[in-house]
C-alpha cells in the first residue's frame, strides 16, 4: 500500500514513491485493490476512482478507519560502475553507499464526505533535513447526475504539476524509487523532471464524465522565499513571473479486468532565473518553458493472479532562455528538449514483480547550458542520454492475507540501470575521462509502510 497507497496515490525526491495504509483502513479494501503489486504507486481503475473522488471513499470499520495517519521508511544500497571523484553527499563514500533515504509521515484520507487530503512530511536521511513533500488537498468534490451518466467534479490544491494526476504519470512515474546518490543525466524537461514539484502551489478544477473522460485545468505559482524556507525546499528554475497554466485531458476504457487510457498534458511557465536557493533576478530577461506531453497506458488485472501493466509518455519542450543567455549560462535563447519514458511490469499474485523501463532524452546542443564538468557535465554540449532499467521486486507483506495487514507492508527490490549514452556521449562524455557505463547503477532497497 504505498505512496498513495492503498487506495491510491503519492512522494518526492525525484524517482521515489509513497505508501499509506490509512487509505486501506478507511476503505476496508486491501492495497491490491488500488495498486498494481499491492504496493503502488501504480493505480488500478479502482485506485484512480478513489483519487479522483478526493480520498473520501469509506467502507472500513474500527478506530483505524477514522484515523488518517500513516508512516513510511525507505533504505537502500547504491553501487555504480565506477566510483565518483568525490562523495555525492556529505557523510557518504565515493561508492557502495548504504543509507537511510527517508522517513515520512502522512495525513491521508477523508476530511468530510466532500473533501480529503494526501499530505506528506519527510525527513531526508541523506541531507538530514525536513520538508513538506507531496501534497494534494481536495477541498471539494461531488457527483452531478446528467441523465444516465454521472459527472464527478472537484478541486485540488497541490504542490506541483502531476502530484494530483490520477494516472500517476510523472510525479509517481517509474522508477518509483531510485538512488539519490548515483549520477543522473543533467537535462530534464520542466514537466518530466518535476522541477516545480515541492516549490510551487497550484489550484486546479477537474471533471470526470462517465468514469471515462477526465479533464483538468488550473495554474501554478512558485513559493516566496519565506515559504520555501518554511517547507524545507528551494527554487527550481526560478520564481514564476505570472500564473503558469496547466491542462490535462485523458480518456479511459475499462473492460473484462482490463483498462487502457490515452491522454495529454500542457504546462507553460515563465521564470525569473534563480540566483540562489531563495533568490531570483529577472532584470536581464525571463526564461520560459512550454511543455506538452502525450501518454498512454494499459493494464491487465484479470483475477489478480497474473497482472501486466504498460505505460509510456512523450514530452516535448520549447525553451526561450532570454535570462540565461544574458547571464551567459545558455549559448542561445531558443532551445528544445524531448523526452520518452516507457515501462512494462509483470506481477504474479501481487507478490513477485519484474519491470523493464526505458528512458531517453535528446535536444539541441547548448555548450553553456551543458558545459564540461566531472561526472555531471557534457564535453560536447549535448543533453542526449539513454538508459534501460531492470527491476525485480518481492512484496512479502501488503496483501489482504498478509501478516499484520493492512498496517505492516514491505517491498524489497533490486534495480539495475544501464546507460548507453550519458550527457551527450559514451566515452569521455564529461571531458574528464568518464564513460557512460561508469554510471551504471545497482540499487537495492527496502521500502516499508505502516
From TrEMBL:
UniProt keyword annotations, A-Z: Signal
Superkingdom as given in the UniProt entry: Bacteria
This protein's record includes keyword Signal: yes
Signal peptide, first to last residue: 1-19
The protein's name: Cytochrome C
Native source organism of the sequence: Rhodovastum atsumiense
Amino acid at each position: 500500500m504505498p505512496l498513495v497507497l492503498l487506495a491510491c496515490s503519492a512522494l518526492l525526491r525525484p524517482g521515489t514513491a509513497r505508501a499509506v495504509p490509512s487509505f486501506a483502513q478507511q476503505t476496508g479494501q486491501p492495497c491490491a485493490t488500488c495498486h498494481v503489486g499491492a504496493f503502488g504507486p501504480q493505480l488500478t481503475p479502482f485506485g484512480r476512482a478513489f483519487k479522483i473522488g478526493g480520498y473520501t471513499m469509506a467502507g472500513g470499520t474500527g478506530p483505524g478507519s477514522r484515523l488518517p495517519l500513516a508512516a513510511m521508511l525507505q533504505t537502500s544500497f547504491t553501487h555504480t560502475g565506477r566510483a565518483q571523484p568525490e562523495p555525492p553527499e556529505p557523510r557518504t563514500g565515493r561508492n557502495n553507499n548504504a543509507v537511510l533515504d527517508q522517513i515520512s509521515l502522512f495525513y491521508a484520507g477523508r476530511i468530510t464526505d466532500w473533501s480529503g487530503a494526501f499530505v506528506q512530511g519527510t525527513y531526508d536521511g541523506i541531507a538530514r533535513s525536513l520538508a513538506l513533500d507531496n501534497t494534494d488537498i481536495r477541498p471539494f468534490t461531488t457527483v452531478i447526475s446528467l441523465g444516465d451518466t454521472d459527472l464527478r467534479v472537484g478541486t485540488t490544491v497541490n504542490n506541483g504539476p502531476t502530484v494530483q494526476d490520477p494516472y500517476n504519470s510523472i510525479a509517481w512515474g517509474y522508477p518509483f524509487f531510485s538512488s539519490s546518490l548515483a549520477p543522473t543525466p543533467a537535462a530534464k524537461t520542466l514537466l518530466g523532471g518535476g522541477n516545480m514539484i515541492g516549490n510551487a502551489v497550484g489550484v486546479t478544477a477537474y471533471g470526470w464524465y462517465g468514469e471515462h473522460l477526465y479533464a483538468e485545468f488550473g495554474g501554478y505559482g512558485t513559493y516566496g522565499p519565506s515559504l520555501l524556507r518554511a517547507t524545507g525546499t528551494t527554487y527550481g528554475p526560478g520564481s514564476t513571473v505570472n500564473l503558469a497554466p496547466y491542462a490535462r485531458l485523458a480518456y479511459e476504457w475499462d473492460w473484462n479486468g482490463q483498462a487502457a487510457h490515452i491522454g495529454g498534458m500542457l504546462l507553460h511557465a515563465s521564470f525569473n532565473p534563480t540566483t540562489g536557493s531563495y533568490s531570483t533576478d529577472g532584470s536581464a530577461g525571463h526564461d520560459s518553458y512550454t511543455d506538452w506531453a502525450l501518454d498512454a497506458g494499459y493494464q491487465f488485472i484479470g483475477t489478480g493472479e497474473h497482472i501486466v501493466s504498460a505505460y509510456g509518455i512523450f514530452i516535448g519542450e520549447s525553451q526561450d532562455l532570454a535570462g540565461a543567455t544574458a547571464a551567459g549560462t545558455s549559448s542561445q535563447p531558443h532551445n528544445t528538449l524531448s523526452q520518452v519514458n516507457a515501462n512494462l511490469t509483470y506481477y504474479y499474485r501481487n507478490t513477485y514483480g519484474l519491470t523493464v523501463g526505458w528512458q531517453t532524452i535528446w535536444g539541441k546542443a547548448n555548450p553553456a547550458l551543458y558545459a564540461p564538468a566531472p561526472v555531471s557535465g557534457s564535453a560536447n554540449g549535448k543533453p542526449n542520454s539513454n538508459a534501460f532499467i531492470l527491476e525485480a521486486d518481492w512484496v512479502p507483506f501488503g496483501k489482504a492475507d498478509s501478516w499484520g495487514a493492512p498496517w505492516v507492508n514491505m517491498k524489497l527490490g533490486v534495480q539495475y540501470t544501464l546507460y548507453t549514452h550519458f550527457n551527450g556521449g559514451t566515452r569521455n562524455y564529461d571531458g574528464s575521462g568518464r564513460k557512460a557505463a561508469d554510471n551504471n547503477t545497482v540499487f537495492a532497497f527496502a521500502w516499508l509502510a505502516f
